[in-house]
Write a structure and sequence with these properties.
The protein is of the alpha+beta class. It is built from two helices and 13 strands. It has two domains: 9-80, Alpha-Beta Complex (Outer Surface Protein A, domain 3), CATH 3.90.930; 83-165, Ribosomal protein L6 (Outer Surface Protein A, domain 3, Alpha-Beta Complex), CATH 3.90.930. Helices cover 19% and strands 37% of the residues. A hairpin with a 4-residue loop joins strand 11 (121-126) and strand 12 (131-136). The longest helix has 22 residues, at 59-80.
Length: 180
């Protein structure tokens, strides 16, 4: 049995879960998420606890068991607490600011980069600490937008300039060695 798949998902009281066949809809204070799962995996809601079951021990069923449970848990966590990724800007003259809802990046190019947030995503930019926060209820969207922002100017190994995740460590390289 999958160690992840067999764990029950406790639904907080402020979250409402609706199960319709293979489609699950989760509503909470941070928003609404819905997802249709493959028919091989079944799930049930009893007394505020969601359990995920699989029909057999086939390789595909085992894989989908843990994946389904993780996705449902992320949905419940997202609508109750939300997710956020923090990015850090390093470099002289590199700046980020929020204009209306859009994130405006000045990363040393001849033009500004404007990132429009998709539905359910919001940005915060702190000029003093040089951090960008990407927040939302959908973990996949938050990670995807954070990665898109990072790709606009990835950190380089010699000076460490660029946009990196807060917890990311940049391996620094030594520069050229002088003539001897």
């Amino acid at each position: 049995m999958s160690r992840i798949g067999r764990l029950p998902i406790v639904v907080p009281p402020e979250v409402d879960v609706t199960i319709d066949g293979t489609m699950i809809k989760v509503t909470g204070p941070k928003g609404t998420l819905e997802y249709t799962f493959p028919p091989e995996v079944s799930f049930s809601l009893e007394d505020g606890v969601i359990t995920v079951k699989r029909p057999s021990d086939a390789r595909f069923h085992r894989a989908m068991h843990g994946t389904t449970r993780a996705l449902i848990n992320n949905m419940v966590t997202g609508v109750s607490k939300g997710f956020e990724r923090v990015l850090e800007i390093n470099g002289v003259g590199y700046r980020a600011e929020v204009n209306d809802k859009n994130l405006v990046l000045n990363l040393g190019y001849s033009h500004l980069i404007v990132v429009e947030p998709p539905e359910g995503i919001s940005f915060e930019a702190d000029a003093r600490t040089r951090q960008i926060k990407v927040m939302g209820a959908d973990k996949q969207k938050v990670g995807q937008i954070a990665d898109y922002i990072r790709k606009q100017r990835p950190p380089e190994p010699y000076l460490g300039k660029g946009i990196k995740y807060m917890e990311e460590k940049i391996r620094r390289k030594a520069g050229k060695s002088g003539k001897g």
